[in-house]
């Protein structure tokens, strides 16, 4: 099981000199599972991923967490959709394919990417075999969990011979009392990747927006007994220095737990 981050930013892409280290592209993760190429979300990070994949393979699985724009907006610029040899199997969020289709020109004067979805050369299909709450990808079991986010979102747990990885973005943990279903969902994972958009002092005015702060993500990791915690979905206003400060604070509070922040280009192997 090999994971690479192609987009780590939340809400909107934030390129610039202050986000070079951890990245300015919005959410996109690449997983290699026993020879299969699995992509989670199609934020702006999927554009450079598309260049890397083009011509190397003819099928990918695209798992969608939810339909907010920062997790879909890169799809019209994903080079493999213009390759007639490519098949993209869309799964996860039940209306994932519909959300992708709505990015494209519909024949009505309402905007959208100028190429109609139905004229894309690649084969892009919703695969019912990739539907929640659980499905298999070869020898890997994939489970999903509902998250606390406006209009909904789902997290993913991947269990395989090498161990377990959990990916949870766009999730607001409550100020008191961790959801038992999420603790069980994350329990014993080698790696937990979790939303950490806000600082604790920001949660008051931002409560209800569907994102967490670092103490909440840390509490979940400790309660579930995970091996490593990685913060993701960095706020677009958060500089590299400020992201690192969050990591340093979390490490000071839990010195026995490995804590890092997701960075574009970071590779994890189980």
TrEMBL record:
It holds the Pfam family Lactamase_B_2. InterPro entries: Metallo-B-lactamas, RibonucZ/Hydroxyglut_hydro. GO terms for molecular function: 3'-tRNA processing endoribonuclease activity. It comes from the Bacteria. Residues 36-234 form the Metallo-beta-lactamase domain. This is MBL fold metallo-hydrolase. It comes from Desulfoferula mesophila.
């Amino acid at each position: 099981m090999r994971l690479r981050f192609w987009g780590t930013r939340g809400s909107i892409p934030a390129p610039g000199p202050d986000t070079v280290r951890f990245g300015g592209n919005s959410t996109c993760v690449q997983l290699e599972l026993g020879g299969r190429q699995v992509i989670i979300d199609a934020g702006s990070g999927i554009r450079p991923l598309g260049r890397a994949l083009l011509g190397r393979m003819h099928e990918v699985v695209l798992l969608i967490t939810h339909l907010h724009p920062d997790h879909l907006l890169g799809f019209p610029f994903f080079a493999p959709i213009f390759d007639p040899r490519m098949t993209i199997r869309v799964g996860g969020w039940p209306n994932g394919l519909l959300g992708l289709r709505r990015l494209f020109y519909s024949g009505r004067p309402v905007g959208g990417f100028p190429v109609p979805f139905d004229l894309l050369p690649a084969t892009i299909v919703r695969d019912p075999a990739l539907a929640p709450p659980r499905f298999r990808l070869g020898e890997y079991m994939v489970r999903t969990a509902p998250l606390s986010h406006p209009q909904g979102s789902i997290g993913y747990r991947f269990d395989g011979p090498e161990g377990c990885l959990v990916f949870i973005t766009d999730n607001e943990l409550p100020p008191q009392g961790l959801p038992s279903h999420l603790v069980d969902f994350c329990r014993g994972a080698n790696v937990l990747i979790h939303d950490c958009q806000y600082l604790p002092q920001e949660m008051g005015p931002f409560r209800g927006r569907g994102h967490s702060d670092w103490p909440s993500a840390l509490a979940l990791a400790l309660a579930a007994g995970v091996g490593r915690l990685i913060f993701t979905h960095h706020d677009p206003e958060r500089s590299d220095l400020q992201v690192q400060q969050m990591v340093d604070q979390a490490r000071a509070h839990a010195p026995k737990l490995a804590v890092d922040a997701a960075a574009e280009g970071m590779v994890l192997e189980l």
